[in-house]
Every structure is written in structure tokens, then in C-alpha cells.
Write a structure and sequence with these properties.
107 residues, alpha+beta, elongated
């Protein structure tokens, strides 16, 4: 699980890869379609796609000669699990602060 979380965060660490994830959230795309959206070579886009695939954030399906890249929403689960800890942490802290302020106001 820890390696899966690290791979997902590594994949999301780069702004280009985050942009690719956003694009794939609206439609499946080939490498060529993605390359048209960025000012980089096909090989550079392929490298980003490999890292996203290793992170479990996309899947690649061969359709004839094309390779279709598809967002894998479940791949975000390790990231969301990690972030949910901090979401709960801040909820607890803010609730404690609220209670402390209310106690002070009632004194």
C-alpha cells in the first residue's frame, strides 16, 4: 500500500501529468491526441503516461494499432486515504478550538 501511495503521489507531482489526468477525466485519448495538447514530443508524453500508469492513475488499452489512455479513478484512492487523515486532523483541531472559544465566552 505504501509503495502504491508513493507511486500515485509521484505521478501527481508534475503539473503536466496533473493536466493529463484532467484531460483524461473528460475523455479517453490516444498518445497522439495528448501530444497535440502539449508543447512536447510524443516520447515525452509517453514518459508521462508511463509514470501515470505506474502510479495506477491511468490504464492503457490496445485497440488495433492505437493505445487508448483512460483515467483510472480508483487509482486516486491511496492519495485520498492519505489526505483524509489530515482532513480529520484539522476537523478535530478546529472543533477543539471552537469549544475552547465557546468556554472562554461563557466564563
Amino acid at each position: 500500500m505504501e509503495n502504491q501511495t508513493q507511486n500515485a503521489f509521484r505521478a501527481l507531482a508534475d503539473p503536466t501529468r496533473r493536466s493529463i489526468v484532467r484531460l483524461l477525466s473528460s475523455q479517453d485519448m490516444t498518445i497522439g491526441q495528448l501530444t497535440d495538447r502539449f508543447d512536447m514530443t510524443r516520447a515525452a508524453v509517453k514518459k508521462h503516461l508511463t509514470i501515470l500508469s505506474d502510479g495506477g492513475l491511468i490504464t492503457v488499452e490496445a485497440r488495433g494499432r492505437e493505445r487508448i489512455n483512460r483515467l483510472e479513478p480508483q487509482g486516486m484512492a491511496p492519495v485520498l486515504d492519505w489526505l483524509s487523515y489530515f482532513d480529520q486532523f484539522w476537523d478535530d483541531r478546529l472543533n477543539s478550538l471552537k469549544e475552547a472559544i465557546e468556554r472562554k465566552e461563557n466564563d
